[in-house]
Specification:
The structure is a homotrimer of 197-residue chains. Chain A has helices at residues 2-40, 55-70, 98-106, 124-135, 141-150, 159-165, 181-188; strands at residues 45-50, 74-79, 154-158, 177-179, 193-196. Chain A is α/β, with parallel strands linked by helices. The first copy, chain A, is elongated.
């Protein structure tokens, strides 16, 4: 018996182990490869560039953002160029170049000042859209934006656009983060969808 | 011999099984994890939001949709805001508010009434684009749209936009589905690419 | 001993192998499935459709492209419709229809001729944007485009748009590839993000 056990033990080490350890190695390799795949998988995340400063497009962005956040997705909105105006809460001229002052005066302060992208007719289009939304009991654009914030949607203002256009952080609504293209890309590559609006 | 076999059996259960059952557990865990990864992988699917009502942008959407469907992808197009006009087949005023009637009259009925996004000059730009396409034997926008439908591209009209703008389902072309932002997100998260056009 | 070894050997083949070969099969199946998943994973890649011919939008595209390429991503930009004008380096009328000649004369030659999408006022808006960028020591749009090229961003001109609008390859800047919707989709499905700009 003792001899037999030694024989078994030797047999296992001498004959069985090659197969066994080959399998173990394969399984370990699979674990490492699967781990790499999982790290490369997108999160349950949606990223948007809001480039447009038109009420209708910005509204679409907030509706999608709210819907995604409500369904449990992580949502980040990067506001750049004209999109930055959606984050403004006041006009300010201190510390700006002449062109930046002009830019500040000529562009809307938040959603209330925005026009629609087509048939705006000096603001009539935007007013009409708002009235039509009210008639259908659809929340106003400002409420949609607030809903997105309440649902945890992150709002990031593009640093380069702020520098160029002269929008200072204190002119923007509270809770806005500031980031660059690297921050955007970092979110985008981990997202299931990325939209440019 | 009989004793030897018992010894082997015991040895296998007593000495081999720990390794073996550890491996089995690891393999089962791998199978479960891989299954989770596979369920989280995007389908061979393309989703688009068609927000624009400009002929050139809508045309680009249909060209991409047809190409994707022809290559075997599942394609869904969500028409929202101005994009809804691409799905209209007639004007109708019954059961609409004044603003909805105005919206209905001022916006195009399908692709034939659409202008291009730049240099439209009251419709001349759209006519010129169509003529240039004809001269190069490129199918007209309406044919591109029909091709997309024939290839199984799903067309979904945005419920909220229909409500606000007052476009009723019977005004839209046949075969159009109606859905909301949740339906869009459900497709987008399973898609390899999502475009906002 | 010899008998014992035979017994072990038989026992292993007769009793152990079923478990072992079952495990081996499972591991092989896992390997194949994981390989399929890996082939279906997106590359570290970003694909863009540049549809717009507005300086601000094209600039945003180049900024994102440069940032992505600098971070090690493979980046492809597909220029279509108005976006094609970003790739032009000269005007040429030979071998064009009347409409194509008109199109060639009415559209900008590269970024220097482009206006901005809002408040352009016949080119003043574009000049103002350029001045504001200069004042903040932000590279000019042409430098951003060159940076993208230097970083290995691929620029692909849409074949169908070239045919329709009559832009010949020799009118475009050097190093531009020509491709169709199939080429775009081939890149898009392997990309982590796809943007329509």
């Amino acid at each position: 018996m003792i001899n037999g056990q030694i024989a078994v033990s030797e047999a296992m080490e001498g004959r069985l182990s090659p197969e066994m350890s080959a399998l173990q190695e394969q399984v370990q390799k699979l674990q490492a490869e699967l781990q790499a795949v999982r790290e490369n998988m997108p999160d349950n995340r949606l990223t948007m560039v809001v480039f447009s400063g038109d009420l209708d497009r910005v509204l679409a962005a907030f509706v999608i953002a709210s819907g995604a956040a409500a369904s449990g997705m992580e949502v980040s909105m990067f506001f750049t160029f004209w999109g930055l105006t959606a984050l403004r809460q006041k006009r300010q001229s201190a510390g700006k170049t002449l062109f930046q002052k002009m830019m500040g005066w000529m562009t809307p302060v938040g959603l209330p000042g925005m026009g629609v992208s087509k048939m705006n007719f000096g603001g009539i289009g935007a007013k009409m859209l708002r009235a039509m939304m009210r008639q259908q009991s659809v929340p106003q654009p400002e409420e949609m934006a607030q809903m997105a914030r309440d649902l945890g949607v992150r709002m990031i203002a593009c640093q380069m656009s702020m520098d160029v256009m002269g929008f200072h952080k204190e002119e923007l609504i509270d809770g806005v983060e500031v980031g660059g293209v690297a921050a955007f890309l970092g979110e985008a590559v981990r997202s299931k969808s990325t939209l440019f609006i």
